[in-house]
Design a protein that fits this description.
heterodimer; A: alpha/beta; five-stranded parallel sheet; B: five-stranded parallel sheet; 20% strand; globular
Chain lengths: 108, 138
């Protein structure tokens, strides 16, 4: 079993492959791996409650833990309380934590 | 004495262009504050991140002087990250891809930056606890 952190910096409106993590993370989770997704930069935009984004719905529906960088949220005026249910605001430190713990960390 | 955690980062973005650069420097700053051994391989436009000739400028549109604008300079952030890492028992080893430097005339870098090749990245990735590649996106 692998432990994998995806860092998603893209979203559907600025990237044609904004669904990369949503396509991969649920399948890796279903295969028995530990998978988290961290949203950074514009990647946090679909995490707003009420945002229509099938990729985010796929992630949350599959039970993949979704984190959102608190700095990226603040930059974009997104209140952590306004995040979709299942998305948790966190500090970017989580990336260094996971790297130090030997997780595979993939930037997208 | 416990060996510090060593982390390798590959960066590709030129300064002042992408939020990825900001996030990359934030990650390096967090790791530096933990005393990590940081090994950075800068490729393509990223070799300009520590470019020594970066200068602050005024902002005429907003009527700001150079001092008021206080423009962010990546070279200063990199120097601060190196100092922070050393303060906490770590270090920053920043390698600029030599060919990328020559293409861009970016040979003048802040202290501590050295010239290398992708072989250095391979060596860093082999030796470090873990590696994060932050690629460009166009």
């Amino acid at each position: 079993m692998a432990s994998i952190l995806f860092i998603e910096s893209r979203e559907h409106f600025d990237s044609a492959d904004g669904g990369f993590c949503a396509a991969l993370a649920p399948r890796l989770t279903a295969a028995g791996n530990r998978v988290d997704v961290l949203l950074v930069q514009n990647g946090v935009l679909p995490a707003r409650a009420g945002a229509r984004d099938c990729a985010m719905a796929a992630l949350l529906g599959a039970g993949v833990p979704v984190l959102a960088d608190d700095f990226s949220l603040r930059e974009r005026g997104i209140d952590p309380k306004a995040l979709a249910s299942g998305v948790r605001s966190c500090a970017l430190d989580v990336v260094i934590d996971r790297l130090a713990d030997g997780w595979t960390v993939i930037w997208h | 004495m416990k060996k510090p955690i060593s982390l390798c980062f590959a960066l590709m973005d030129a300064p002042f262009e992408s939020a990825r650069s900001t996030t990359a420097l934030r990650l390096l700053a967090i790791a530096a504050a933990r005393g990590c051994d940081l090994q950075v391989f800068a490729y393509e436009g990223a070799v300009l991140q520590p470019f020594a000739a970066q200068q602050r400028h005024p902002n005429a549109v907003h009527g700001h002087s150079v001092e008021e604008e206080n423009h962010f300079l990546p070279r200063e952030a990199i120097e601060a990250i190196a100092a922070e890492a050393e303060r906490h028992g770590g270090r920053l080893d920043w390698v600029n891809c030599g060919l990328c430097v020559d293409e861009r005339g970016a040979g003048e870098a802040v202290a501590g930056v050295r010239r290398g090749s992708p072989v250095d990245f391979w060596r860093m990735a082999r030796e470090c606890t873990n590696t994060l590649v932050i690629p460009t996106h166009d």
